[in-house]
């Protein structure tokens, strides 16, 4: 009897054979890069480099992956620069692999050339804004086959708080503060006219680590958390990244303001943003943080992220945002 597993690591050499056969690639070498929501492998072959993503069966269903693949194919067709799925010899983009814990979906992606830049220069900021806007123009007009979640007050504020309750068992003061902050922000968003906020599919993790640059060319990747909601959530994800940089002393407030202006200039060269949408961005940052904090409670790979000392770091930063940017 083979002992059951909840999350196995598939053998790179066996995956190399699988990829070579499925995609007609030659001289394939496979190496594990990172474990996370799923597992990411680097594929080297005679035909070039690729990225193989193996999704965790407990977190991503076939229908979830189908929607992600559908979005990426549409973006590729619209010439939005993304790492896109590769079709196999049978015309399929999604593989199913029988792992010990059950079926896992796998997708082979084109390789995003270049490297991530923690701090973007002015030209890169402008291009990032342009290409995010081009992505949003496509995603706002799109209805996908497959299931994805919706980003709203419940999924970004209150549902994550319920998941986090046990993690804050010994720090009720911080948990109460988070609850009150979530209620106040939900109330604030309800008090403004959001009827004209544009809705579409969001990346929801638009951090510099999820884009590569070669000179002035950008490629987006890691759409694993994509879902439907206000497009401003994507701008908020980048806004809060720069807020962290200032908080940590790696960027001045003046540089933050200048960078944000350049980024928005690039964005608005392709797509308009209302004054009300821009004003909401800082308030959406709490939902960004709570969403991922809640996710960390569901995945053993991120157990260290929900330990008391780490949670205290997060709450202290969020209190800083409240003091400086909220209300």
UniProtKB/TrEMBL annotation:
It comes from the Bacteria. Signal peptide: none annotated. Residues 39-242 form the Aminoglycoside phosphotransferase domain. One of its GO terms (molecular function) is homoserine kinase activity. GO terms for biological process: threonine biosynthetic process. Belongs to the pseudomonas-type ThrB family. This is Phosphotransferase.
